[in-house]
Design a protein that fits this description.
196 residues; alpha/beta; two-stranded antiparallel sheet; 8 helices; elongated
Length: 196
């Protein structure tokens, strides 16, 4: 999912900070270019946008941008882990009556929430879409099965028809706004079916 892509990018940036020379005068320009390139990869992914902003601020506001960036990346990593744990805890608390869930594509946050629900002996099965064209849902299905969760992999085209077989639909997001969210094409149909 979007958060995992940003986490991988952040890990690469942290490695870059460890290897690069802090006294290189070209460094702020290189970091600014890196931030801009990060945004062109997938501009709708909020976690990448936030990461690019973090890089840009380090390049602009500090005499030692590498140290600042490394510090900010570590702070971001800790915050992400804490947020993922809080979301998983809250999901488990709110989803007590749900035994069979349906999810679409891949989300590391959804994976953590489903693992927590399974750990509390509440989750019996997860219906997972393939997540075409890249089949991200297959990765989620493999990871859930590796945790001992019963998984049924469903082709994307049949997923909406399977909503009634689930107690709830759980999806991740690429970005969240006050009254809306951005996710993979097809999520809205699932949401509408789940509300019926």
């Amino acid at each position: 999912g979007a958060a995992e892509i940003a986490d991988r990018a952040a890990a690469l940036l942290a490695e870059y900070c460890r290897q690069e020379r802090p006294d290189d005068l070209r460094l702020p320009y290189g970091l600014a270019e890196l931030a801009e390139t990060t945004l062109t990869v997938q501009p709708s992914l909020a976690p990448l946008l936030n990461l690019a902003n973090l890089v840009q601020l380090a390049a602009e506001r500090d005499k030692n941008p590498l140290r600042r960036l490394a510090t900010e990346l570590e702070k971001r990593r800790r915050q992400r882990e804490q947020a993922k744990a809080r979301i998983a805890h809250e999901f488990t608390r709110r989803a007590r009556r749900f035994r069979r869930l349906l999810t679409y594509s891949y989300s590391s946050t959804v994976l953590a929430a489903l693992a927590a629900a399974h750990g509390s002996n509440r989750l019996e099965e997860v219906l997972v879409s393939e997540g075409r064209p890249l089949n991200e849902g297959r990765l989620l299905a493999e990871r859930l099965a590796g945790l001992g969760i019963r998984v049924t992999l469903v082709v994307d085209a049949a997923l909406a028809a399977r909503v009634e077989a689930a107690d709830a639909v759980v999806v991740g997001t690429d970005a969240v706004f006050g009254d809306a969210y951005v996710n993979k094409v097809g999520t809205r149909l699932l949401q509408e079916r789940a509300r019926k």
